[in-house]
Amino acid sequence: MSPATPAPESGGAALELLVHGVGGATPQDMLDDPRTVRITGDRTAAMHRRAEDLDAEDHPERYAARPVPEAYCWSNLTSGDGARALWLLLLPFMVANLAHWMRPPAQGRPGLVRLYGVLVRLVALTLTVLLTAAACEVALDLTAWQCAASTACTDAYSWLGFLSEGRGGWWSAPGRRLVLAALVPALLVGLLWYLSNRTWSAYEAQRPPTGYDDPVAEPQVDTEAADAGEATPVPAEPRPALGRPGFWYGRRLVARLRAAHTAAGFLTVAAALATAAGRHDATTPGPRALLGSILQGAVATLALLVVWVVCRRGRSERRLDLRIERTLVSWLPGVSFALLVLTALHTGWSRPGWTSGGSLPGDVAFGALTLAQGGLVVALGVVALLLQRPHRDPRTALRGLGGPAVAMLACALAGVMSGGVAQRVADWLDGPATPGMGDAGPRIGPPVLLSWQASVIPVLLLLLLVPAALLAVRTVLTARRLRAAVEGDYDAADERDPVRTGQIAAGRARASLTDSAPVLVGVVSGATLLLGAGSVAGAWASGNVPGRAFDGAHPAIASLASATQAIGSWMIGFGFLLFVTWGRRAYRDASARRTIGILWDVGTFWPRAAHPFAPPCYAERAVPDLTWRMSSWTRSTGGRLVISGHSQGSVLAAAAVWQLPPTTRGRVALLTYGSPLERLYGRWFPAYFGPEALRALNRTVHCWSNLYRATDPIGGPVRVPAEDGRPAVDGAVLLDPVAYGRTREHPLPEPILGHSDYQADPAFARRRGALLDRLPPALPHQREPNGRTGQGEPNDREGQESSGRSSG
């Protein structure tokens, strides 16, 4: 830790609330003391102090010259135990959820905002159906249908012998085999429901503080209420979006979406069973055919109801919504599961003469899903352009198309994972043959569309090499160009060292690569959309005949496609195995677990607004924790508070400050360093962290200061200018390293710190001291008879009113 910064004697008690960033930190490291004590919270997230600072409020005279440091540790919310490594398998759902929050800002356009939310939720619904359909493909088609019909397959895998059609056992009937195999996707859907429900209770059930005393705002359209399906406009909250009372408590929406997606999963399994039996029953009219038609109609009806539930209501943030769904929505999973059971009983009904042949009609389902996802992404892009057009910000990622591009990436990830599992299982069951390739005799293979999708993976990787090579060349040229600027910053004309200069210049050049991320995302998304359309066209042109994926094409094209398909099949299979291996490694390796945690630190900041099976939102626990702590401490002590956030911690700090009542915000200063508030969040989430939102944050908080380095690949300036008598938030860029060569103060070469150890820079202590000086002096407060301050009890009128509203 840096040395304490003197504070004015008249300032009174002061608290510095430290919030760490990605990757986590221990209380001992944050407080620079091996003896720390947890003062509030639990093992998942808690506030810590030095042991010697426990009674700081009782002895303010001891801390007249420095603030009391307090650390909030939240790393266990994302990287606590090895089981969370399995969240890697939920990556497509998390990416789809991010697309919801990437919409461009909108003023007075509630219809487009609501349409944007509906389209993203529909994309998320297709991902659930795709995952379940892939499980059905593996369990029902490849294993219970194709492998069980092949004597060579059942002989090679003896544990599948009881399903063999040639043995004539009880389970050898096709319907019974399919019903038994349907347990796999049904259990998968149940597991996703359980995880979603459990993680909500563990991570997101913390209610935000209640009792807001904002002045009444001028009536205007509340876009979030419109997204929630409200019939008439309501007065908007005067706070920005992240400061609304219900922003960090989405229980009702998550429960609603969880019911819809669970029902969609069960209905997908029921549709797979009903379609398989219906194809046979169509050749033998009778009661079974009529019952099958009724069941298929029921599945279609419930599917339409699921779509209606997903489209009907989005997030409502203008109030803290504590209601629980007691309508038909809560019955959807149970009704869908009951329909699945009825369909299973119907499918397992004995049908003499029914034998396995070819493959189940999965091509139609996968083709329809691919076309639906492509159409939804294109429609989402059109809506995003319409929202962006009136107020285009040149720094917005992909000119407002970040949401559609990320939604396309979510579909691509789900397709690769689903196709990878199907390709590997087919290859495993089929022996030495290549899945989807036509050889003599029947072969076990996935739908033709998956073979075509595998063939475009190498093409996509080749396309990525072009921008990657250009960025590498540009980085080298930028490093050369920055040499003169580095020597000028350090005034190193007399001690010029080409090696040292090159290291610093290269660090700055590499850090600038972060700003090129939109280019790569745009290339991958655009190429994925075009290649996906080509895969559908190729599968349609080949007649969707398994084992003849590239028939009818020119011999040269067929040979090239066959080679790329084989390479792609192995690549996606290898990628999936690498995915699983990395997840297993995280059970034993803390460093691997920490790396995975960094992914979730960035990806799961946002509430689950589009996909209920995404990894849980840690901010719905962390933001209320910070808000409650700042409110209770300032009310009980009347003192000054600096909330100091590094990296992702600065985003949590800003979100918590937005949630504070105005009387509390007037006693709080915000210090951010290594902050991605504008560089990442402002560009990719312009509706919530855009220029207007950050300027509004500067106007609402008492004072704000931001530190950044040119060598930092994550943090950067927040670009909030001076206005209304307030100074600019960004100061001068910090030099990194602090010394060019050896000096008396730095006898050893200083390292290039990049994104870490901002407190080691002397400018940090100076900037924190300046913030404390700008805060108003402490307010008088009552002490309890024992002399303590009554921590957590409000002692002003605003606090009492707020507590009364909370208890009510």
Automatic annotation (TrEMBL):
The chain crosses the membrane at residues 85-103, 115-135, 178-195, 259-277, 289-310, 331-349, 364-387, 399-422, 452-473, 517-540, 560-583. InterPro entries: AB_hydrolase_fold. Keywords: Membrane, Transmembrane, Transmembrane helix. Residues 769-808 are annotated as: Disordered. It comes from the Bacteria. This is Integral membrane protein. It comes from Streptomyces zaomyceticus.
